[in-house]
Amino acid sequence: MCGIIGFVNLDQQPANQRIARAMNDAITHRGPDDEGFYFKSQTALGMRRLSIIDLAGGHQPISNEDGSVWVVFNGEIYNYRELREGLLARGHTLRTNSDTETIVHLYEDYGDDLVNHLNGMFGFALWDERRQRLLVARDRMGEKPLYFTQTDEAFVFASELKAVVQHPSVERRVNLLALRKYLQYEFVPSPHTMLEGVRKLLPAHRLIFEKGSWRTERYWQLSYDGDRLKISEDEAAEEVRDRLREAVKMRLVSDVPLGVLLSGGIDSSTMAEMACEAAGDRVKTFSIAFEEKSFDESSYARKVAAQLGTEHYEQRFTERDMLDIVPEIPRLLDEPLGDGSLIPTFLLSRFTRQHVTVALGGDGGDELFAGYPTYGAHRMARAYQMIPGFVRSGLIEPAVARLPVSTENLSLDFKAKRFVRGASHGAGTRHTIWMGSYDAAQQRELLRPEIIAACPDEQVFDEVLPLDRLNGHTNLTEQMMALDARLYLAECVLFKVDRASMAASLETRAPFLDHTFIEFVLKLPVEMKLKGQISGWTGKYILKKAMRGRLPDDVIDRPKKGFGMPVAKWVKGELRSLVRDIFSPERLNRRGLFNAAYVQRLLDEHERGIADHRKLIWTLLMFEMWPLAK
Q1: Quick one: which of 79, 373, 381, 436 is 20 to 30 A from 628 by CA?
Q2: How far apart are CA 470 and CA 479, in angstroms?
Q3: For residue range 398-441, what is the model confidence (pLDDT) as tens digits?
Q4: Which residue intervals of the chain bear CATH 3.40.50.620?
Q5: Annotated catalytic residue within 2, 276, 455, 492
Q6: Domain 2-218 classification at class level
Q7: Does residue 2 carry a catalytic annotation?
Q8: Which CATH superfamily is 233-370+490-557 part of?
């Protein structure tokens, strides 16, 4: 696990080593164990290394036999041993036992198509000295990040935005379209970034830079097209177990201590159960507990650990511990993120890193197996739209609006009010209203009119409006699952986990995101994922069936909860002074982006208990605390 940086000068001037070292220093947290550089004429490559495999021989950059091809690499290639054996059989000479070295030799055999042979999470850059050509690639689901830009002086790339801006030719101007998208989703979707002119490479894409210009190509597609498997539920459950067990086994390869992040939900519990089955030694599991009962899941984690017989570690955090992290958020993030679960994710990563260097997690289970409540809510919305409009607007919605405001995690009023706010819209719009923060009407109140005029709604919402054409399939549940995999998983969940874990120098691995496992799950009938009708449905049905008898029933059957934080309570309590200071009218007017009177109204209504504006306030707070454009 590493962080990478690099640039190619456009004027053929020698690469400035001072600039490369400054970029590399900005991501020291991603790799505290080692660093390395390649400098040749106009090109610079750099890396920071967190040593996981081949501790002695895995120093980067790594080249082929004659030094004509060089690579810097962030991530893990889980099938590198098989790749290595094939390369040796074809006559290649490999000097190390690292997964990184396989990449340069695969390039010699397969060129740009080498990415099709990799099973792993990765962001890498490969320089072909003979052809004066740069190949950059990102893994299929977006586990590892990769930013890039081309300025008048250079093509620049890095694992994090905070490294890109160390290049003096990169300007720090806020991307207004990205700002609107961030307010909508709570994250910035690829290829956009919050800085004008800087882009994120999309998952499952490669980039080729040569002769002064770049282009991108997709090399893999997450698609629900094609026939579904004709398979019984028992057969499907058994194959889910077998294929997932193999994905877990591949991700247990490590030359350093390894454990499992255990929240007590079915996804992480499945990882723990399968790791216990595959590992020869007693598995270490890690969880955190909170004083706030509506947010605490530690009892379920302890129950799973006891049944599996793991070596379980738990740390209890007070509200003060969590609040102390808030000022550190700008250090953790290189782009704003409105998801408050960044805080417990970082606390868990930091605690886990005290004992191990690598940890398995359950990310991806909800998107693959329809685990979010929103998938069932879309079915309810269809029924809701059949109710006469005068009944909805005259009876139901006023009754919901009168529900008492609560600051608890996923309280009844929070869920009901968000449901009716989005239920009358089209599928894509209501999905983002339920999952995100500011809808179009709220943005028109928040943002200055000139920003709205410069970034019309059709550009802002272009990820969700054309759902009818999404991957060629028409099933609503699958449309939303594909949308969540493309947006919420890749741009929010994996972004959050990467930054939080890397800030603690912990490598996390997600067996659910093995692309061969994903390709199998996509072929299962949707009814095996979301089973039932409006009167009652079960998400993750086939995964629960696969794990029945292997995990406690109350862990399998309990509702989805999530990794929440008491943000609603904090904003009107312990964080009130900070929030009021950051959102002072003078400060907001000086920045020139937001309507200060509207922001003050949000704060007043929230503090008085008239409305629950936790998501709106927190999303805006995270942007205002973001340091790169200041």
Answers
A1: 436
A2: 7
A3: 787 777 776 666 667 777 877 877 777 778 888 888 889 998 99
A4: 233-370+490-557
A5: 2
A6: alpha beta
A7: yes
A8: HUPs (3.40.50.620)
